[in-house]
Design a protein that fits this description.
Elements: H1 4-11, H2 14-46, H3 50-63, H4 65-74, H5 80-111
Amino acid sequence: MPSFKELVEWFIQPGVSRIFLICFIIYLLLLWAALIIWTTKDIISRTNNIILQIVSIILAVVLNIFGVLIYLAIRPSKTLIEKFFEDLEYEALSDSVIKEKKKNKKFKNKTK
């Protein structure tokens, strides 16, 4: 088994360290691109506000991981689809309450 000194010497050789450095830079660039794509898809699914969409994407592009963390703090909590179904549920509940009240009024009028 090689000693620690031998491992360090092997790692700092010009060819090996350059390969690791290039791989690390490529990894960071791919991570940056993935964060931009994810932020774009997520903000588009959460709001129709163009200004908020642009600001969120710029945060991800300029500030990288810190921008995504800021975006996570300011983004809307629900997607547009979740809001739609929540509104639909409230509407259905209010309709059923109104129908129940009308039904009770008719029943009270009949008993008088």
